[in-house]
Amino acid sequence: MAVELPAQITVFERGWLSSNNILLTGGRETVLVDTGYCTQANQTRALVQDALAGRTLDRIVNTHLHSDHCGGNAHLQEVYPSVRIGIAQSQLDNVQSWREEALTYRATGQQCPRFVAHDALSPGDVIEMGDLAWSVVAGAGHDPHEFLLFEPVHRILISADALWQHGYGVVFPELEGEDGFADVATTLDRIEALAPRTVIPGHGAVFLDVEEALARARRRLAQQREDPRSHAWHALKVLLKFKLLEQRRVERASLLEWASTMPYARALGMMHFVDEPLPALMERALGSLLKSGAARQQEEWIEDGC
Length: 306
Ligand SMILES: [Zn+2]
Known about the structure:
Layout: E1 9-12, E2 21-24, E3 31-33, H1 41-52, E4 59-61, H2 67-70, H3 73-79, E5 84-88, H4 92-96, H5 105-108, E6 119-121, E7 126-129, E8 132-138, E9 147-151, E10 156-160, H6 172-175, H7 181-194, E11 198-201, H8 210-226, H9 228-247, E12 249-251, H10 252-261, H11 263-272, H12 278-292, E13 295-298, E14 301-304
Helix pairs in contact: 7-8, 8-9, 9-11, 9-12, 10-12
Bound molecules: zinc ion (ZN).
Residues 64, 66, 69, 142-143, 161, 169 line the site of zinc ion (ZN).
Keywords: Hydrolase
Pfam families: Lactamase_B (PF00753)
Domain Metallo-beta-lactamase: 18-203
């Protein structure tokens, strides 16, 4: 069943390489929340241009700065030179100086073209988008700088990667040996307290069964806390799968070579799989993707399986 949203909100449901994009019109300004991955920036622009039907794009807001959520910023900034980009206050310096290390693009081996940000957003701020007032809500866990956006009249939550209908994103601080699971729990509690009626997630369909989604997310979190190695294993496969989504088709040897030099893979190997050399570990992760159908092999080539 399609979920009904106020007419001024359009959700472009994209998939896993590009996050969903949420276009808010109707107000004085037009706003796009999250812009997808850079290799699909043309498609993002076409979707936005088509829906705006001649209006300009006034603002972009990024829930967080993972490459699949802000990879389209640079291209949209070229097309709409006056667009203002709003990001988490805590990331403003990193963006203005373009510190790829701090922005994690180096660690994940992903790409994100440089863009310029204008507005700093912090939890507690209220911003107008589509003639509605949205609260900026802290959403750490998946990413320490992530925020959610909540509209209290229709009780709509833009949840980014903090809550999906079936789970939530990889807990990135854990890949750096920092505690992220506690923040995931706090954010899930915060979402429960907001009691949203409709959730627009960063990936996947808009959903209404919020209680069930929270219960599923908490079960997953309990299991990951019990067995952090299972989370690390999941993260390795997600990073590998993302590369496949990006490349579509890649030589097996070069994929494994890339995987064995990715900083997050090295860190996870050292923390959780000390007895297994990294190339063997990544070979095993690829084997698992092939077995589940998430990847396909044709002679020496690996293809995305979805
Ligand atoms: Zn993310």
